[in-house]
Input
Amino acid sequence: MAPQEAFVDPVPLFVPCSRTSTEVNKTGSWRYLRPTYTEKTAPCGAACPAGEDIARIAMLASRGLFQEAWETILQENPFPAVCGRVCFHPCEGACNRAQLDEPIAIHQLERFLGDTALAAGTQAAVNERSAQGRKAAVVGAGPAGLAAAFFLTRLGFTCEVFEAQPEPGGLLRWGIPAYRLPKEVLQGEIKRIENRGVKILCQTPVTARTLEKIKARNDALFIAGGYGRPIRLNIPGGEMACDGLSFLAQIRSPATFAISGTAAVIGGGNTALDVARTLLRRGVEPVLVYRRRRQDMPAFAPEVDMALKEGIKIKELSAPIRIAQDPNDPESFPLNYELTLQKMKVSSTAINGRARVIPDGNKIETLRVQGVFTAIGAEGDNLGDFPPGANQKHLELSHCQMALQDLPVIWGGDLATPVKSVTHAIASGKQAAIALDTLFAEGWDAVATRLSACRIGSGPTVSMAAYLGGDRERRSARVVTFDEINADYFHPRARVTPVTLDVEQRLPSFAEIEQTLVTGAAREEATRCFNCGICNACDNCRLFCPEMAVAVENTARRINLDYCKGCGICVVECPRNAMVLEEETP
Amino acid sequence: MVQLDIPPNDYINPGHLGCPGCGATLAMKFALKALGEKTVVVIPASCWGVIAGPYPQSALQVPVLQMAFATAGAAASGVRAALDMKGDTATTVLSWAGDGGTFDIGFQSLSGAVERNEDCIFVCYDNEAYMNTGVQRSSSTPYGTRTTTTPGQGWKKTRKKNMVEALAAHRIPYAATASIAFPEDLICKFQKAKDLRGGSRFIHILAPCPTGWGIASDMSVKIARLAVQTNVFPLYEVQDGLKYTLNYQGGRPVQDYLQVQGRFKHLTGADCDQIQQKVDEDWELLRGKAGIYVDPAAARAREQRQCKSKARKS
Amino acid sequence: MKQVLEGSHAVSEAVRLARVQVISAYPITPQTHIVEAISAFCADGTMDARFLCVESEHSAMAAVIAAASTGVRAFTATSSHGLAYMHELLHWAAAARLPIVMAEVNRALGPGWNIWMDQTDSLSQRDTGWIQLYCEDGQDVLDTTLMAFRLAEAVHLPVMVVLDAFYLSHTFEPVDVPRQNQVDRFLPPLVPRISLDTAHPRVLNQMAPPGVYMEMRYNIQTAMAQVPRRLTQYQKEFRAIFDRPPGDAVEAVQCEDAEVVLVTSGTISSTCRQVISDLRSRGEKIGMLKIKMFRPFPIALVRRFLGAARKVAVVDRNFSFGASGVFAQELRAALCNLDGHPPVFGYIAGLGGRDVTPDTLVEIYRRTQDCPTPPEESIWIGLNQEVVQSWYN
Ligand SMILES: Cc1ncc(C[n+]2csc(CCOP(=O)(O)OP(=O)(O)O)c2C)c(N)n1
Ligand code: SF4
Ligand code: SF4
Ligand SMILES: [Mg+2]
Output
């Protein structure tokens, strides 16, 4: 029986007991500092001559989004599989992770992504304008010319590329041995450019005469003929030496090869090494002859190391002064040569780290060899009135020279880049494409400003993604330093080491020495990347906000200023410096 | 990159009254992520008594019983008993007390509760002083600290009480330390504690207090992390008062931790050395219990090597 | 069914019959028998309840507060130092509006350690917001305890059931112990209005700023003020179910024509009944007002019954130092605004277990009769003057 209480007053109950949420308190009014998501520039991307968005590429790869990662490379560089092999990767030298353990193996990642895409045969979904009716002619199907054609096509130009050689690729095709760059890789990436509608006309050398015809048919001209003419060795008997680049070109075609025994290779650059290592693979015992010290060689250090490992000897501080046929045995086959070397010594260390050398008295050494090869540099053809003089309107860009003749002409590639490398050549092609597009859209005066607006970091590198107005354009140019990384979130972890062929396996063949990373290793390596300056959605800001003031709205994070008290924890706990704390403006 | 595998839901509302950067607030945020909505929280007098909201607001999406200062252990026991009597054994009872409410005035009640092996999770969010009343020392305040009742040259000259050891001595099923700088570890420990029903679980969380420690509000998490990295606040677990597990191996010099806090500003190099000694001693003691031994000097050297470039720069 | 029970066990039986779910207590003489019996009920399954053997009275009260906040019927018992130790939480329980019932055995506070009867412990908790009901005998203890739950749950305030040390707690008397189904009719299961509930999460006992605190306090008083009417109503129900009257808030015995009305509480009321029948048989105009309900103080009833008395003699077995006996104070306060109210004589007797015999009460009656007005605020009865004088030497 329920007790009858109806006639008694109900007992009021007013107790300290909640009935609403604290959400009614807009505690954002306590704030005097305001956190914002401000993405910054990663040092690797700023150091990449092609301005690849490496931090983002690694972030995507770390999630297994390989296609997206690859497309992000393609925004800036049509040759990931090539550059992943042959670029000297200055990006890795700038990598912040080096200060924790070792840099990210960026080139390995790039190569992995490039190869994965090649294997799948995919075309990249990079933004592309429809044809605008403008035509551009490109002279030279080397990396600069092909890059220019690729970017110009994306910007809506119709492109024709003229190439003197029977196949496109330039130095990539003729100057780099297969153990560093297999032919199929290069062909695959060129094919993809052609598939975008670029027309490559091989065995079509451009002469002063044909140039006029080409000009008449086009609205703009990009000249990247490269350094096709080797510099000869100007010493007595110099004409007896073979040119290293031509040798590399020939060896690619199954031509006869007529030496054995020992050969001297003169030079200290990558070509010299390529020649020496190619000789080695053909059963010759090469000796590298270099006038400075080993550490002064312009060749990439890893290449030098590998050459040494393969057994190539380096004669440093030795300058050739004479080549003569062996007087004792003039009839022998193969011919014997006597190479006379002046021994050198270091006089002082010159500005950019390379030693200045002078003859060491009259110390002389004589080598008996069966061949002498030179790889001491090359020069370009003077096509189209290069360099442009004061008689024409012209602009000197970081990677190009630009002039207004009867039509706009840009010289790029090795002719104009500060560093003679594949990736700088690509950068040059990109710069030319942006310059031409700007010229037609906004006029001559806008070119420099536009280019500067899409720079990555403080260097000359330009970004196509930024030019086309993507997220990258909004990024701060400030380059993130290691101090700005919250290193608490990163623990030392070894850098990936690719599988490499043993010396014994390498020598009998031209098989690639380094293997492409396997998927797991690539992904793992990508997770080592700090993703400096960019949000990788790690969610730390949201996790650590004591005010529940960070919300995720369609994958992007947003600060709810109604409640953010401006404590700054999110900014400090952002592992990668993608946020800043600013004074609140009243 | 640290991949966080953390429950997405929060049971704490914005607009609460915690100071900017309050470590104690974060501690609750993480704890409730692990415990979920079937939780009743008991809060004795403390900062959290304020953070939870003044009448008629609540900062939490779970029921809360605010209680008198000394009562956390007993009150949690009462809630547990009542829930059990109602047939609700699924709901977790979480006692959430400050260091005052745990180490000092609430010690008796907590000791009683864990001796009875009450089926509750007892948490001390430790900001190492009575913050709610304006930073007075507690028995959790570490050696060397200035507070408003250990001011000037009268800075605290006695050690911090070792609470986990005291609880381990009760031989409770589970005792652990946790840090707001290690949310996965913290959440994992709460999940573990939640699943270990039927007995007492104690979790001691270091919760930096910008207001009381003389640190910038953005530094709370960083400093909580430093406490672990320097072994000032080691992360470990004790099962049944017997089985010790160390969750993290620190080794940075305590100087790194001390020098970034206003409350330790006055300490001389010699004072810091003395503190280092105490920390080493405690750490060794702990290692001994965990049954593994690593030379702390070697560990520190390794940690320093890891931070080499940082040091080089500054 | 009549059983011969110790006063303490009358409490225990009532707690069992009330189907209390959580008990928490800490031992102190002379409360121990109450909780020992309850422990036994819990242990042998007679009661389906959880007994929390906590480590202090402070914790005992904290635990029952928490249990009550979770929506179950909760009980504790204590005495003297234990009660004093609970002090903070007595305020808490009341302001949290929890229907907790506590048996409090009146015992003296130390030092000098003294385990015997004295009301100062309970009376010094008068401002905590607890309803206080004083019991006269074993039956009253059982009935009051049942009533306490009914009242507490109706007005959302805790109730203290007070019984004399030893005279009541340790004295065996026949007590009519009701059947469970009777008690269940009188005391339906608790339906809490506010409790900890994960389905409706709220913060209880939170910070109350000045803008609301005073209203909350006024609200407690509003509930207190309802107690007398509620009690009257539940008494009717009680009588209907158990076929016996439970104790009134105040009981007036032959007050109408009395020249001196003795005001009593607890077991001395029984002694006083004896004295009245003796003196009345000799033609003396003596009456008694037994105060059962000390909080809320039954001001209206006191005025009604004492307004016409010629003299009032309050027997206080307690003392508020620097003032007077607590019942006397309260009575004076209740009467002072009444025109022509009688003089109130305050007597202090029986502190720390000193026996209050019929002779003591007769002496009080005589001294009141002999003085036209009170000679002093408090008249201490039975002091050994030899001992008192010895301090001065
Ligand atoms: C019995 C009692 N004594 C003192 C206080 C005052 N008081 C309220 S909170 C507090 C300090 C709480 O310190 P701690 O438990 O460390 O929590 P914190 O505020 O530091 O988070 C004190 C002393 C009180 N509420 N009750
Ligand atoms: S952590 Fe939260 S409250 Fe603090 S600054 Fe960031 S968004 Fe604001
Ligand atoms: S005083 Fe310290 S612990 Fe208290 S709310 Fe502020 S920051 Fe948190
Ligand atoms: Mg504290």
Remarks:
- Chain C has a mean pLDDT of 97.
- Residues B 24, 45-47, 69-70, 97-101, 127, 129-133, 138 surround thiamine diphosphate (ligand 1) (CB under 6 Å).
